[in-house]
Amino acid sequence: MKTLAIILFITMYVFLIALPKRRAIVALCTAAIFVITGILPVTEVFSAVDWNILMMLFGTMVIVDYFIESKMPNLIADKILELAPNVMWVTIFMSLFAGIISAFIDNVATLLMVAPVGLAICKKLKISPVSMIICIAVSSNLQGAATLVGDTTSIMLAGAAKMDFNDFFWMQGKPGMFFAVELGALATVPIMMVMFRKDKEPVKSDEHTEVTDYIPTITMLGHVVFLIVASFFPNKPEITNGVICMVWGIINIVWEIIASKSTDSMWHSLKAIDYDTMLLLSGLFCVIAGITNVGLIDDIAQLMASAGKGNVFLLYTVIVFGSVAVSAFIDNIPYVATMLPVLSSLAAVMTVNPLLLYFGLLVGATLGGNLTPIGASANIAGVGMLRKEGYEVSFGDFMKIGVPFTMTAVIMGYLFVWVFYA
């Protein structure tokens, strides 16, 4: 049974890489085979799926779509542009702005909000938008790991480590992942100043975006505040965060229907949800439960512990930079979903703080996708947007920015997590 599980698991990964547009189908088919063969008993399928994560994703995606449509992000961008004296600082400010937004909103959604503003600026100045869009893309991907709701990988980590919103800021009496990520983000500023030191053309903003609806902004802030408040209540149901996101998403939908006396906005929002990712995760949850049942996760943990030869620092280093290498070419969602239970077992075997390994995984896997244009969905979307504008971005073009940006942020996060959680 274990041999069959290994073969199916490896086959699934091969197809996930070979068929990036069919990831959900691949994962769900593998999960179905697991159930049919008895690797995962049919009675355990429902409990294998992390409904809290799926509910959080669904509710947050609904709120994000309404927030984008309200044009509030564009208004914020206008205000930021008023502070920028030249193109270099526009690039830096837009990158930091994308990062801040990405801490609370999906990475691709963030790119879709901010990148059009960058394109408009570059057209006005008659300069190439390639560098600015790449910086916005990698910044969006970088800061998704800063909070509980910033990225799918963060939500998955929170589920595995039983973390609340506040735990990303302060965990076990120590500064959390938010500060590791922000330290890395700040360290990229001087990198950008060097890379774009020649871009000194003056820029000014003479446009003012009109926000069409303030309710999405209220629901965006509301669901974050409720997640923070819920963090202070111990022993709450595991689906609490998911329910909060779902309820606020429903409130937004109902309010908009009443205000507009139409269901058009509701259907637009529901169509904007990334069902592919949700189905992918559902399948992966079942597959991981299956390989856990047959003892494969424990075997991998024992193998990694042996390879580390009892040296926690060596193991931590391998996890961080190995994750960077893997995530540069492979989507980090299935990778993180697979590694979280492995690291949980590994921490028990080596009697180390599991947060050290969890946070190291998040630093490497989330930031690692910035090395290449295919390593993260935000990068793919950014390169696609540039292609539509007539700019072809090669691996080399992307990596000129992606490599120094990524390695600077990773090294800072790597050192931060080791200092506080080793």
From TrEMBL:
It is found in: Cell membrane. The chain crosses the membrane at residues 24-42, 49-68, 88-121, 177-194, 214-233, 239-258, 279-297, 312-330, 342-361, 367-386, 398-421. One of its GO terms (molecular function) is arsenite transmembrane transporter activity. GO terms for cellular component: plasma membrane. Residues 13-364 form the Citrate transporter-like domain. The keyword Calcium does not apply. Keywords: Cell membrane, Membrane, Transmembrane, Transmembrane helix, Transport. It is a multi-pass membrane protein. This is Transporter divalent anion:Na+ symporter family.
